[in-house]
Amino acid sequence: MSSAITCEDVRVSYGDLQVLRGVSFDIPAGQGVVLLGANGCGKSTLMRSLNGLEKLQSGRIRIHGDSLADASRVDLRRIRRCMGYVFQQFNLVPQLSAFQNVLLGAMGRHRLGLLSCLGLTASTEERARAMACLERVGMADRAQHRPSQLSGGQQQRVAIARMLMQAPKVVIADEPIASLDPKAGREVLDLLWRIVREEGLSMLCTLHQLDLAREYADRIIGMKAGRVEIDAAIADIDPLHLNTLYVGMTRVDAQPQEDAA
Question: 138 and 91, same structural domain?
Fold first, then answer.
């Protein structure tokens, strides 16, 4: 089985502060993995490293065999186009309709960029695909609604449709239910995991809820103090072992952006 994401002894530092201290793992194509760890363990730094937003001190990251460190700007854009994102804060454009936000998923394939995503130059095929993506997440009847007219769960569904529009091979979901109530959060996870499995995608999803991680994940990677502490298939996970990720935590990342990790 080919590898979707490979991390080889990844290290990231901010000055003298070591944030990632030799992180290594391999996610095969088609596997859904949950990344766990307490605030400040380095999860967000790792997630930013996966698309080249963090400079590695040493080590290597490969996405479907392509090394980020060796990629030219053109190659890096190509690698990023195969990676779809679902964020905690939805990141929808408030002035655009749900339909137009979904069209944004195709922006990376167009020289005209945003104009195509506003529907000004989008092809009939792309417009039909955007509607199909909204239908897939149960939001076709809200296509012309702006984000302010939608609930949090509905906004996250639109964000998932936008990710689908991109046609990614790898999904990075960073706390996708942190802004939702428990009922809406479970509905979003049901939808997200169903789509990932039906499409044969690979996913790395950060969560804090241990019960949901055990319920949805094929495998769990647990981080503590910048290192991988647990890496096991869900059937082999000891729940008591998971709890140790949150005991005696030493914060390794003092950067402000890690606070929400």
Answer: yes
